Amino acid sequence: MALEVREALRQIAFDENAKYSVVEMPPGPPVLKPVVAEVYGPDAETRHKLANDLTDIFKKSGSMTDIDNLMSDEYPVINFVVDSIKASHFGVDSRTIQSILAMSLQDFTVSSIRLNNALEESNIVLRVPLAKRSQLSYISQLPIPTKYGKTIPISQLGSFEYIKRDELIYHKDLFDVEYVMGEPIGALSAPIYAMMAVDDLLLEYKTHDGKVIQGKYIGMPENTNSPAFSWTGEWTVTYETFRDMGIAFMIALVAIYMLVVWQFGNFIIPAIIMAPIPLTLLGIIPGHFLLGAEFTATSMIGWIALAGIIVRNSILLIDFTVQEYAKGVPFFDAVINSCSSRTRPILITAFALVGGSSVILSDPIFQGMAISLLFGVLVSTVLTLIVIPLGTLAAGEESCRNIAISMGLIEDDGNADAKYNQTKIKDKPAANVNSKNAKQWVDAIIKKGASNKSDKVDSSSLMKREDST
Fold first, then answer.
1. What whole-number distance in Å separates Cα of residue 383 and Cα of residue 76?
2. 3-state DSSP call for residue 65?
3. Going by DSSP bridges, is the β-strand pair 76-82/170-172 parallel, antiparallel, or unpaired?
4. What's the CATH class of domain 24-72+169-234?
5. Rounded to two decimals, what is the model's pTM?
6. Which of 127, 235, 270, 403 is geometrically suited to a Cys-Cys bond with 260, CB 3.0 to 4.6 A?
7. Fold of 76-164
8. Could you say which DSSP state residue 412 is in?
9. What's the rounded Cα separation, in Å, for the pair 286 and 299?
10. By the 8 A CB rule, do 451 and 443 touch?
């Protein structure tokens, strides 16, 4: 809407030789404009010159509109000087003159009235027509009451003088500063691209002391005693927001990894579980491109929230694989069973998130969050069902067995080798012992030692001897 209004007002302002600006309320912290240059210098003259030159460069760049600065043009101010001798002679107080001038030059509320049983009162306002109060000849004839009950023109009590209006002085962190502002336009409407375009043009610009300057993107210039400027506006808010949220995201990833390591007692599997998190960008970035939306702070919030959902789905697959493996299912079959059993609840969770995020898809502020959740969960869910099983198989059966042992699902003993399809090589095979014929078995061992003919016990002869008895 702001773009359409700005385009409609462009020709009107050009015909009337007027300045105009379409102001949008920012969704985040208030800023003067999306692109703001803070100009510093040793004195007002240096700052004004650099600010005016930057204003021209802003216009020359072609990447911004609504370009302006906060330096006021010089124009005279009319001031009424009271002649104290004449005022004393006529018995007129200076406060009386001041109040009458204020009443004549601006709206004056006399009283209020309630009309037709209205709930709110309406003010009775006196207002001198603009055609008369803008003419000094009419103001000079304002009647001023005296203590003698008569009125005299205000011109007999003093004179009107033209004086120079005091300039506005802006300060930031106790430094004098001037502001140059603009609104980025074009296909790349982010402030950073307009700022870079201005910096490119500044390579051919030199200050009065012959130096080439560039805008400082983070913080104030190091030396404010020479012409310099820094970039602020939405850029500063965006940088600080993404910096802080990026740090928070890294802390969240470390915390998730530590929790999963604590849960499974393994360092490889948690890395596999968190692998689909960066894969969500394969859905988030194309989603913003398809809908023509910008990656905003709410988009970042949606990405962080999506990381928890994806990790949950990965944990479900790994946990089910370990549970199946603990029941004696072969490792490969346990991985396949986890995918076939958990695909349906994972898809239901994804579709529920898609339905919930689609509600705020048209919201101008939270659209980025909706796009991140909607497109990110669709792509990452599909990739999770592929990456997690392949990663589990790549980690190997030993990792799955160690997780089962750390979770207390199986015991870490020698008998577990045969149970979980692992053959344990022994030095010598055990003899086949029949508990009912312990005596014959002992006799056979004694005879074996005596004869020293063979290292093995003839179990078949023992069985025949048992049958004969």
1. 70
2. strand
3. unpaired
4. alpha beta
5. 0.63
6. 270
7. 3.30.2090
8. -
9. 13
10. no
